[in-house]
Amino acid sequence: MISYWPSLIGGMLIGSSAILLLLVNGRIAGISGIVGRLLGGQQIGPNAAFIAGLLLGPWLYAAASGHLPPVTIAASAPLLVLAGLLVGVGTRMGSGCTSGHGILGLARFSKRSLIATSIFLATGIVVASLMGILR
Amino acid sequence: MNASLRLIIALAAGALFGFGLSMSGMVDPARVIGFLDVASGHWDPSLAFVLTGALLVALPGVAIQHRLARPALDAQFHLPTTTAIDRPLVLGSAVFGAGWGLAGFCPGPAVAALSIGLLSPFIFAGAMIAGMMLHDRLLAGHIR
To answer: What pLDDT, on a 0 to 100 scale, did the predictor assign at position B139?
Structure first.
């Protein structure tokens, strides 16, 4: 049986990160927003620092656990390009992604985030399931 | 003073986020697809535990935030003010979900995975950044 404890505790660490940024810096830990603002040249310092931390994360995990987290990517290069473009356009148009809408938005009882999260989960499930059937 | 402290907090929050993504399995597109692909016959519920864990902390955290006049290191909270359920929200979320379901990457894991040293995350993140710039510079304001 697979243990779900690492997922639950990992999720709690993600939630703690979001609350740390909210209570101390007063900002929403939404990754698409942070990357988008960085690209637009807004609040470069804190946004770049957050991204630097995000890049360090897997290596801190490796230092603690003895191995890097597995990253298994089945998608081909053209599919990765298409997926990346859709994620880039979609998260900026929809004002958020799994973190901003899915975690903080839901915790803030934002109706916009509840709708966004329901929609991206639904289309994600449909597309991933269709891809699985076609594979 | 506060500005440099904010940098340290942002770095720490990013590291904690990346550690959590790594520990939870969310940084692994195969695990994400295992959750989103409900027709595979071997569904992996891990991601529901990740979201549950995150909300277990975020819900009381937001309750604390409501009692504070301002964050520790800034004059005010910087929170979204839009409340309208509009076309960009619905269309954008649908487009994002489709891309998420295709490759199993959303923005956080895609950025964190860049440091692991594989080529694929760079291909995805490069296209994602191009998509963000395409939206912010050309599409923003045209869809309403």
So the answer is: 85
Residue A49 pLDDT grade (very low, low, confident, very high; cuts 50, 70, 90): very high
Q: Domain count of chain B? A: 2
pTM for this prediction: 0.96
* Domain membership of residue A118 as a residue range: 5-134
Strand (E) or helix (H) holding A110 = none
Q: Is B24 helix (H, G, I), strand (E, B) or coil?
A: helix
DSSP assignment of B61-114, as one string?
A: HHHHHHH-SS-TTSSS----------HHHHHHHHHHHHHHHHHS--HHHHHHHG
Please indicate, yes or no, whether residues B92 and B68 belong to a single structural domain of this protein.
no
Mean pLDDT value across chain B:
96
B7 lies in the same domain as B68: yes
For residue A108, pLDDT beyond 60: yes
What does the alpha-carbon distance between residue B33 and residue B38 come to, in Å, rounded to a whole number? 9
Disruptive mutation site among A93, A119, A121 for chain B (greatest number of B CBs within 10 Å): A93
Among residues B79, B112, B132, the one where a domain terminates is: B79
Residues B124, B90 share a domain: yes
Q: For residue A135, what pLDDT is reported? A: 80
Per-residue pLDDT tens digits for B78-106: 999 999 999 999 999 999 999 999 999 99
Residue in chain B lying closest to A92 (CA): B132
Q: Does B69 touch chain A (CB under 8 A)?
A: no
Residues B133, A64: C-beta atoms closer than 8 Å: no
Listed residue (A129, A95, A24) closest to B72, CA to CA: A24
B53 alpha-carbon distance from chain centroid: 15
**How many domains is chain A built from?**
1
Domain extent at residue B36: 1-79
